[in-house]
Amino acid sequence: MEPIVRFTSRTAVLPAENVDTDQIIPARFLTTTTRDGLGAAAFADWRYDENGEPKPDSPFNEDSRADHGILIAGGNFGCGSSREHAPWALLGFGFRAVISTKIADIFTGNALKNGLVPIEIDAATHRDLLAEPGLELTIDLETMRITTPNGGVDAPFRLEPFARRCLMDGVDPLGAILAEEDAIAAFEAAHG
After folding, report:
1. Range of the domain at 137
2. DSSP state letter for 94
3. Which of 149, 140, 135, 145 is nearest to 11 (CA)?
4. In whole angstroms, what is the distance from residue 12 CA to residue 107 CA?
């Protein structure tokens, strides 16, 4: 994982409520234990019709989608099953963060362990972000704020401290523990 301290990107908007992990990555694509190719299947049923043709009204098929790395999603995002493939698919599709008023707990845990930043914000700020697709937004893990260049949005958010540190260091929880191997060995030697 790459360290994430601060990044700026445009937003993509998905106002639908209760988007579950099967909508994020349909079960028929869960034939792998690696991340390879999952981005192409993200939101597949919303992006393609039954013949595999792109749906013209899908917000995920726009040509400018490549520079939209922040997903503003409706409430209760990532509900449903605990599939780790969901954050893998979003990352593979190019998202680096998901912002909502409520993100499912299991999805949040899977996202944090894989380098996708799940952010819950207040309803008023969320409503403003949903109303302006393509907005340039900065996410700063040091200050724990999301902002726009013009100052129109300046909202705090919270992340669990250990998960935040892992994101900023670019490691998963196991990597953070392994980085303390010398201290663990010294403790064991002193208390063995």
Report:
1. 6-191
2. T
3. 135
4. 19
Between vectors from CA 148 to CA 168 and to CA 12, what angle results, nearest 5°?
80
Structure-token match 């989608």, residue found: 65
Residue 93 sits in a domain whose CATH number is 3.20.19.10
Residue 1 domain-assigned (yes or no):
no
User: Mean pLDDT over all residues of the chain?
Assistant: 92
DSSP 46-93: HHB-TTSPBPTT-GGG-GGGGG--EEEE-SSBTBSS--THHHHHHHHH
Q: How many domains does the chain have?
A: 1
What is the residue type of 11? T
- Choose among 147, 144, 122: nearest CA to 70: 147
Query: What is the spatial distance between Cα 158 and Cα 147, in angstroms, rounded to a whole number?
Result: 14
Q: What is the pLDDT of residues 31-80, one digit of tens each?
A: 877 788 899 999 999 999 999 999 988 878 776 566 899 999 999 999 99
Residue whose token pair is 């098929």: 61
Residue 144 maps to a domain? yes
Going from the C-alpha of 123 to that of each of 1, 19, 99, 101, 120, the distances in angstroms are 31, 17, 11, 6, 9
